[in-house]
Amino acid sequence: xxxxxxxxxxxxxxxxxxxxxxxxxxxxxxxxxxxxxxxxxxxxxxxxxxxxxxxxxxxxxxxxxxxxxxxxxxxxxxxxxxxxxxxxxxxxxxxxxxxxxxxxxxxxxxxxxxxxxxxxxxxxxxxxxxxxxxxxxxxxxxxxxxxxxxxxxxxxxxxxxxxxxxxxxxxxxxxxxxxxx
Length: 181
Fold this sequence. Notes:
By secondary structure, the protein is of the alpha+beta class. The chain has a single domain, classed as Glutaredoxin. Helices cover 30% and strands 16% of the residues. The chain has helices at residues 3-15, 64-74, 97-108, 127-133, 135-138, 173-180; strands at 31-33, 39-41, 49-55, 79-85, 151-154, 160-164. The strands form 2 sheets. The chain has a 4-stranded mixed sheet, covered by helices on one side. Strands 1-2 form a two-stranded antiparallel sheet. A hairpin with a 5-residue loop joins strand 5 and strand 6 (160-164). The longest helix is centred in the N-terminal third of the chain and has 13 residues, at 3-15. The radius of gyration is 17 Å and the shape is globular. Residues 5-19 have low confidence and may be disordered.
């Protein structure tokens, strides 16, 4: 057995692999890599609502970036939107973090926080998406991310309170009513 393979096997044995990554108890315990470097620290969002959206640059829903940016501008005193680029559906987010950042700025003038590219389903699912999709973590509901631009709303207390399907426009009455509650 090669020393490289042995090193990998030891790492997986010791740390349990990616699928068993530790999932924090609170949304405020998450710190994720930012799209352009740095860290997005969710503890800084205490007292505000948080809308988490998995995004993709080459999807039929990609124009929702414009509506998300409009929500960001309208509710910036009470809402933080965090985008999570993911290439899990139809290979519709093939670019690098730098390419995604450039696309978001140039095409949609996105100013809300964007995380580094992750996976939102399967064995490589990021811990924050385990929290969002598993009732044992979020204490609200089990769900499955079914496509790009599915949205999760967390209230000012850090509790998951709603999930909106990928086709639900961010500027819809359903979403804005939940933000204004």
